[in-house]
Specification:
mainly alpha
Length: about 160
């Protein structure tokens, strides 16, 4: 008797996650003021528009606050996923999720990351959003993307 192949549970989880990303971006667009959402065209310049709005909407909490210590500042998931989609496009990478059952010590836990643009380098859009808030600089999202492009795209050709 031949045994049926087992379904790839992680692939199923990834496909479900990919739908969640798309749904969250659409929900983010629908809940963002039209004056902002109409400028979110997946371009590098849209990152500056988003960064400035981000700082106005999510003032970074006092470092001693309980919310900061617990890492909870209520950022809409769609915002981080939008940033990730722009980074993925320009870095020519892909999304990945490292499940803790397989990689319990992964640096970003189960946060979605952009990979595939240079060896084992991963970029976590949520962490980039937090860094933007920490720096209180609306241009941080674009600056980091430009830095990654200069650093890793030139090395990929070697």
């Amino acid at each position: 008797m031949t045994e049926k192949p087992k379904p790839d549970i992680n692939l199923d989880r990834f496909e479900q996650w990919h739908e969640i990303v798309s749904d969250n971006i659409q929900h983010f667009f629908s809940t963002t003021p039209e004056s902002i959402s109409t400028k979110l065209d997946y371009s590098m310049d849209s990152l500056n528009v988003l960064g400035k709005w981000l700082i106005e909407q999510y003032p970074y909490p006092d470092p001693s606050s309980e919310k900061k210590q617990n890492g909870q500042i209520g950022i809409h998931n769609g915002l981080s996923y939008y940033v990730g989609e722009v980074y993925r496009k320009y870095l020519e990478g892909h999304w990945n999720v490292h499940f803790k059952e397989l990689e319990p010590d992964y640096e970003y836990g189960e946060e979605p990351v952009i990979e595939g643009f240079h060896h084992d380098v991963a970029l976590c859009p949520y962490k980039v959003v937090l860094l933007t808030l920490l720096r209180n600089d609306g241009e941080t999202l674009k600056k980091i993307l430009i830095d990654y492009m200069q650093l890793y795209k030139s090395k990929r050709k070697m």
